[in-house]
Amino acid sequence: MEFSSWREQGRCRGVDPELFYPPSDEEAEVAIAICRDCTVRELCLEYALTAREKLGVWGATTERDRRRIWRKRRKSA
Ligand code: SF4
């Protein structure tokens, strides 16, 4: 699915984007809570991992979470 089409189905649509770019991971809870019930969460996360999105909350993960996933995948590749 293309980036624009799944994004339109995201629960974050219409929500203040600043919530998804918190100053620290500790302040990402509200955004993560929105992501948890999002129907396109998996697609969003895969997009962020593939695009190596460094900033923001994507698919209920913070930058730190994604770094952890990248490392795990690199090890098992
Ligand atoms: S998972 Fe989160 S950031 Fe991704 S589309 Fe859904 S609500 Fe938005």
Which properties best describe this structure?
globular; 77 residues; single chain; 0% strand; binds iron/sulfur cluster; mainly alpha; 48% helix
Question: What's the number of extended β-strand segments?
Answer: 0
Quickly count the helices. Answer: 4
Number of domains: 1
Structure ligands: iron/sulfur cluster
Helical/strand content category: mainly alpha
Radius of gyration: 12 Å
Give the SSE string.
HHHH
Distance between the termini: 24 Å
How does the overall form come out from the CA principal axes?
Answer: globular
Largest sheet: none
Global mean pLDDT? 94
Instruction: Report the uncertain regions.
Output: none
Strand percent estimate: under 5%
Percent of residues in helical segments?
Answer: 40-55%
Structure description:
This protein is an all-alpha fold and about 80 residues long. It has one domain. The chain has helices at about 5, 30-35, 40-50, 65-75. The radius of gyration is 12 Å and the shape is globular. The model has no long low-confidence stretch (mean pLDDT about 95). Bound molecules: iron/sulfur cluster (SF4). Iron/sulfur cluster binds near residues 10, 11, 34, 38 and 40.
